[in-house]
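Hello again, I could really use a second opinion on something today. I've been puzzling over a protein and I'd love to understand its fold better. I'm sending you its amino acid sequence along with the backbone structure tokens. It would help a lot if you went through both lines with me. I've dropped the whole record in just underneath, so have a look.
***
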Amino acid sequence: QVQLVESGGGLVQAGGSLRLSCAISGRTFSSIALGWFRQAPGKEREFVAAISRSGDRTYYADSVKGRFTISKDDAKNTVYLQMNSLKPEDTAVYYCAGEITSWYRVVTGELEYDYWGQGTQVTVSS
């Protein structure tokens, strides 16, 4: 079984930055492709960013492209989401997700992920 635990959420003013972390345990970290999703109040959960097992392939939602960066540290079994130039519309609960898949694959579909964290709240004030 794979366990994912997010941290780093909080309250920030518009234009500010936050870095989310997601620590993974229970399976060899390098066997898992990872992604970030978010869910705002009253809305469906949506894809934010994803990274391949190889670490050199990433994909972003258009709404965050150029502002958010996904990365991972294999030595720390942790995936990160650096969020810059935050906007009030970025307010949501952010979830990390994991999927055991091939080396170069970037997984963007919510239904493709088998493992999920509990979420961390990000609130951006205007």
In short: The chain has no helices and eleven strands. The mean pLDDT is 96.
